[in-house]
Amino acid sequence: MQYSLLPMPEVEVLVDDATGKIVYRRGLFTPEEVQAWFEDLREHAAWHSQRRPMYDRVVDVPRLMASYALDSAGVPPPILAMRPEVERFCSVAFTSAGLNFYRDGNDSVAPHGDHIERGPKGAPVALVSLGAERRMTIRSREKPRRVLDRDLEAGSLLVMDYASHLHWDHGIPKTKERVGQRISVAFRVTFPETSASDKSQASH
Predict the structure, then answer these.
(1) Is residue 127 within 8 Å of 184, Cβ to Cβ?
(2) Structural domains in the chain?
(3) Residue 85 phi, psi (nearest 5)
(4) How far is CA 129 from CA 71, 96, 126, 142, in A?
(5) CA neighbours within 13 Å on the CB side: how many for 6?
(6) How far is 67 from 185, CA to CA, in rounded Å?
(7) What's the pLDDT tens digit per position in 100-135?
(8) Do the Cβ atoms of 155 and 34 come closer than 8 Å?
(9) Which pTM was predicted?
(10) Which among 29, 33, 52, 44 has a CA at the least distance from the CA of 156?
């Protein structure tokens, strides 16, 4: 994965080796853009809840979700507005966006690697954060364990390349701290039959 960027203090390369490449870009969008997009998506995105089996029972997934194929009608304006800058940074044309809405500290996503088989080999995942800052855990699967945890700031972009999902787990843990609401927008390249539903459920 090649990024169209020049060296800048806002860009941090968290890992770039045989286990993949993970890049964090602070302040890709202005606070005014971020606040407007957050409020718009919170009120107007097609949020839904899901239930899934866990052990001997079925439980609610601890967050709300929405997803859009980017070539379809009805994509929310904030996603269309942020898409060009995300694609410019990644030098990738994305086809779908998956959203997660973390309403409070009880909402979370367990450590995981994305279902990269639902897209072409080599495709990255690019995550825009809106709203309150939340901690993302990023930890290697192989020993010795490496920890790259980051507090994802509003307006930031985290990009994980294809290989990183095979070697690193990432998640948003629950917290007892008082935290505000957060929305993540994960841009992906998915095959046509999956882009509309974007069932990867991962990020973040």
Answers:
(1) yes
(2) 11-195 (2.60.120.590)
(3) -70, -35
(4) 22, 16, 10, 27
(5) 0
(6) 9
(7) 999 999 999 988 887 766 667 889 999 999 999 999
(8) yes
(9) 0.88
(10) 29
